[in-house]
Amino acid sequence: MTTAPISNIRNFSIVAHIDHGKSTLADRLIQMTGGLSDREMAGKEQVLDSMDIERERGITIKAQTVRLHYRAKDGKDYIFNLMDTPGHVDFAYEVSRSLAACEGSLLVVDASQGVEAQTLANVYQALDNNHEIVPVLNKVDLPAAEPEKVKQQIEDVIGIDASDAVMISAKTGLGVPDVLEAIVTRLPPPKGDRDATLKALLVDSWYDVYLGVVVLVRIVDGVMKKGQRVRMMGTNAAYDVERVGFFTPKMEQVEELGPGEIGFITAAIKEVADTRVGDTITDDKKPIHEMLPGFKPAIPVVFCGLFPVDANDFETLRAAMGKLRLNDASFSYEMETSAALGFGFRCGFLGLLHLEIIQERLSREFDLNLIATAPSVIYKMHLTDGQEIEIHNPVDMPDVVKIAEIEEPWIEATILTPDEYLGSVLKLCQDRRGSQKELTYVGSRAMVKYDLPLNEVVFDFYDRLKSVSKGYASFDYHLTDYKPADLVKMQILVNGEPVDALSMLVHRTRAEGRGRAMVEKMKELIPPHMFQIPIQAAIGGKVIARETVRALRKDVTAKCYGGDITRKRKLLEKQKEGKKKMRQFGKVDIPQEAFIAALKVDS
């Protein structure tokens, strides 16, 4: 297999909003360039979505790469390196690193739905990477498709010329050959010098049971060969390259990768942690001095505790977390203990979808039964002695007397919604302490920008937004800065004992409502015991809401027929004493479902 000259290489990624057809278009491109035979494609949609969860939910989580061979109409042979990227805001960091390895992007827009919030976010990321962008309108075969209107929308909202957008239906294959030609004619080839010192960008890395760590690289200058000793500049570790190759989606080995090419290497690397995504790889003997501009590391924004339902599963959970961390560098965890839930881990995620996916992978791939505590964000505490600390677990909050000021993270949210739901979307944002920045119209759809506290968004904002807009609103956000806030720590007391898994930081104005909802929910969920159980929500020493679970009672007077009232009273008093004693020493059994349901409580 000969390597093509650099002018015949095209590196591009596919960017789009969720469900606009990125992975399906990738399937068609692979099929039409003969990457996989029809037999290998048969019965398998979205070839690049390799995880079960990706297939079931129909979303892409990990960015994937494929090398395709294409003979264009001009008779020349081209090499395409295609990157399929996720559309969800939680996985935006996957998008950013795929874009850094390419020169161009196919912007896929659903011809019936038009431009959505994530379309914007991903296009701006592509433009930041100086990409050439080819607009592609997908699903033009649907009765609801309005290609002309959507072209106008792309020009109005994004500001790129869409007059020669490629019209396709990725599902049926209509118009896909035009996409292949557009890649050749409209996207630029990579630049690079074959004779210079090796300089390569580490795009991704994952763990393979047989090969150890597989590293995905984009060669900028020089050549990467088998047997060469390379150095990772970020971690300053050197390795001998054992295998060099690329994916057609199947792994194929070659002797070397030249400038502009994207492929993989293995080098007996044991830990994925040793290969930092965004790092620069160079030759160990004559290294370069300047690192390539990497990309922003993934910073966890949402934290929650994960505890095994069965305490004996703790070691299994620890091993499972280690394995997941191998393939997901954005997921972080540390050990923690809780009086109510025992041993577990405090984990950091990129967002709620990321949290949900990790939880599902733990329960599915490792057969673990888990409880997650209420999600929280990172707060900055300025103490009276001048210290500044970061807190992401309400349990660690210092004494109120020592705190001078608490700051919470804010985000800028972009919401696109059909006009008729605008009122309810604005009301939802107001209720969540948001402040409106701008409101513009894109055709018949409104685009609202809001500043919102992240604390209010991680809880259930996305679900509420989907329900008030009947699923039509789309939402994208990025962190802006920290602002001071009047936050208090609210605890739930069951039988006078604080349940640490349920404590949370809330805004003072929202505390009473959230507390009341919590205790009402807990009252339904805790089964009656032999003694009555008070459930209270408290801020410091002040109780703001209370409910009581009634006691189960045995009819002790049943055996008395007639006779003196004092005899009945004596039995009742005796029962009362017993119940009082039980309440002092009795242990309240809070079922697992109660935690899970209470943490889902909606304010």
Task: Describe what this molecule looks like in 3D.
With 603 residues, the protein is of the alpha+beta class. The protein has 5 domains: 181 residues, Rossmann fold, CATH 3.40.50.300; 85 residues, Elongation Factor Tu (Ef-tu), domain 3; 71 residues, Alpha-Beta Plaits (2-Layer Sandwich), CATH 3.30.70; 107 residues, Alpha-Beta Plaits, CATH 3.30.70; 112 residues, Alpha-Beta Plaits. It is 27% helix and 33% strand. The protein contains 14 helices and 31 strands. The strands form 6 sheets. It has an 8-stranded antiparallel β-sheet. A hairpin with a 3-residue loop joins β18 and β19. The protein is elongated, with a radius of gyration of 29 Å. About 2% of the residues have low confidence.
Short description:
With 603 residues, the chain is of the alpha+beta class. The protein has 5 domains: 6-186, Rossmann fold; 199-283, Elongation Factor Tu (Ef-tu), domain 3 (Beta Barrel); 302-372, Alpha-Beta Plaits, CATH 3.30.70; 379-485, 2-Layer Sandwich (Alpha-Beta Plaits), CATH 3.30.70; 488-599, Elongation factor 4, C-terminal domain (Alpha-Beta Plaits), CATH 3.30.70.2570. The strands form 6 sheets. It has an 8-stranded antiparallel sheet. It has a 6-stranded mixed sheet with strand order 2-3-1-4-5-6, sandwiched between helices. Strands 21, 22, 23, 24, 25 and 26 form a 6-stranded antiparallel sheet that branches.
Topology readout:
Blueprint (H helix, E strand, L loop, with lengths): L8 E8 L5 H11 L5 H4 L10 H6 L6 E8 L5 E8 L7 H9 L3 E7 L6 H12 L3 E7 L8 H12 L7 E2 L8 H11 L12 E10 L3 E10 L2 E2 L3 E4 L4 E4 L2 E5 L3 E3 L2 E2 L4 E5 L13 E4 L18 E7 L5 H14 L4 E7 L3 E8 L2 H14 L4 E3 L6 E5 L4 E4 L11 E16 L3 H10 L3 E8 L2 E9 H15 L5 E11 L2 E8 L2 E2 L5 E4 H18 L7 E7 L2 E8 L15 H21 L6 H8 L4
Helix pairs in contact: 12-14
